[in-house]
Design brief:
Layout (H helix, E strand, L loop, with lengths): L3 E9 L3 E6 L2 E6 L2 H6 L6 E11 L2 E7 L2 H10 L7 H10 L2 H9 L3 H4 L7 H27 L10 H13 L4 H12 L6 H19 L2
Parallel strand pairs: 3-5
Antiparallel strand pairs: 1-2, 1-4, 2-3, 4-5
Length: 210
């Protein structure tokens, strides 16, 4: 089992890299997210790797972020999601964006990936929702730098706030992220939660479109 590779980038293709490790070239399949983070050929690179057999031929998959590797493994547990589809999902969604999409049930975000139709997107969202919801809470708590032992806010107002924002036309993943960012700072009445989440969404939009 090859779990990690460190070497020099020899060449880069549409969805792969050849990494020169002490004179031996390893072809590593990568997501678009990983490829975008690499430097030019001749630069050093380190990959967290997973080897899978396909048609009795070993294939090596590599990721700059360990979180991306963990989600690659998790996605391929779902029936109908092979290595190619998992890479396609990770090409359009970062690990954090994937967590939020799964936790909020945003099937449309998953369906942006090549090879993921509505039925498969629904299956992925249903099977991985619980795992993603736990991770999403951890993400927003870390982002808010919450104190250890801080109680988690009630979930029902959060769900209602997300639903209200979706009805206003916001994407489910964006609404979920905004509500959880506000909720991580302290429990709020529903009306205040929606109002502050709208402010969070407006601030995010200004950052993306200065």
């Amino acid at each position: 089992m090859i779990a990690k590779l460190r070497g020099i980038i020899d060449s880069v293709g549409e969805d792969w890299v050849i990494l020169d490790v002490n004179g031996v070239g390893y072809q590593v399949s990568c997501s678009a997210q990983t490829l975008a983070r690499l430097e030019k050929p001749g630069a050093p690179a380190t990959f967290h790797t997973e080897m899978r057999m396909r048609d009795e031929v070993p294939h090596l998959y590599g990721f700059v972020e360990r979180a991306e590797l963990e989600w690659f493994r998790t996605l391929t547990i779902v029936q109908g999601v092979g290595a190619k589809v998992a890479l396609a999902i990770l090409s359009v969604l970062t690990p954090e964006a994937l967590v939020l999409a799964l936790a909020s049930g945003d099937k449309a975000a998953l369906a942006r990936a090549d090879g993921v139709g509505p039925k498969l997107a629904a299956r992925i969202a249903a099977e991985l929702k619980d795992k993603a919801q736990n991770l999403s809470l951890r993400i927003v708590v870390d982002r808010a730098d919450a104190a250890p032992g801080k109680p988690q806010p009630a979930q029902q107002p959060n769900a209602e706030a997300v639903s209200a924002l979706v009805n206003l036309g916001y994407g489910r993943a964006d609404a979920f992220a905004a509500v959880m960012a506000v909720a991580a700072k302290g429990e709020q009445p529903l009306n205040d939660l929606i109002r502050l989440a709208l402010r969070e969404l407006s601030a995010t939009a200004r950052e993306m479109n200065p």
